[in-house]
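#random but structural
TW: two for the price of one
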Amino acid sequence: MPLAQNPLSVEVELPREDVALITVSGYLDVDTATEFQAHLANQLHHGRRHFLLDLSAVPFMDSSGMNIILRVYQETRGDSGSVHVIQPTPAVRRILDLTGVSITVPISENVEEALARVDAGPVVPEEPQA
């Protein structure tokens, strides 16, 4: 079986008990998305509610990677969790912006900023005054 042309590397750190920092390197596409999804599913299984996805070393992401990010976002919302993308490369940022994912999933410049957003909790729109 040949090696993938653009292998994916996924590292998981736990800055806090309920927070997983997932650092991804390589192409996040149809050939590598299953591995990425397996890491996220494992962290969900172990009770992580907040996901910090460091995409600073991902030169390319297709709809497969984007769909996995949106799926984990949906999963965590039910548990008052969150997903944050950290420092995506320009190509990945462009995909997130063009598809509107960056409106739903916050983008942070670094881990500290993402953790501060976790601490702040979700932004809830105010109810109009009658």
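TW: number two ↓
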Amino acid sequence: MGQPELRRQPCTDTSAVHPSVITHLRCPVCRESLSPAERALRCARGHSFDIARQGYVDLTAGRAAHTGDTPEMVAARESLLAAGHFEPLAAAIAEEAAGPGLVVEVGAGTAHYLARYVRRNGNVGLAIDTSKAALRRAARADERIGAVRADIWQGLPIADGAATAILDVFAPRSGPEFARVLRPDGRLIVATPGEGHLAELVDALGLIRVDPAKRERLHKSLNPALVLAAARRIRTALALTRADAHALVGMGPSAWHTDPAAIARALEAMPEPIAATLDVDLTVWQLPRPNV
């Protein structure tokens, strides 16, 4: 069945989660379906989850293992992505259309990639993250996107076989959980840093390097629950301002391990534009086909 017709206008009700998203959500306590109540989602057994004033709902049931990105990291990511430097990656992800239905982004952050996907393909979207700061922005990304706080390691509060596509962009992965949530004909779209990703900044600023075994770890995390269907490489040269480069450092894992003042001093000594390379491996995964 196709998606219900949606009005393409800014969402002004920040207390609502789109009904086409709620249909696929499940109570994190008992796995029953959820229904909208007064500024909350509630299951038949009486478990209730408030919808925050900013528009997201917390379905961790108090079990999140970590709090996710800080407000400073989220602001840095929003600034960098708004500058358009990762546009080739966003466009490539959106091109991997998987048909009508629910698209889930795990580790969605501000839902930048998810919003691009649903706008191009007409889906409804569900942004999953553990960072409340990120979810406040994700809830405003597009009226067709619902934002939910959940931890993939604790299990996603989503019905079995609900998703036509899952997006995982530099985010944690669980092959069995992804396989449970995907439709039989669904697909998982994964973006991981390539060996040359931001190599110039890594060398100049002493940032965390890409694990040389990252590709092997990716396959181990997903297979045999999912099988590789396609792969491509997104590689392009970037010309960054100092502010862009500082945001790029501040939005990623290096933000936890570097001194912002030292990074600022190092960048101040570098002439603009600052050269860097966007190098990302984009892989598409599907459920194994049953033997006939």
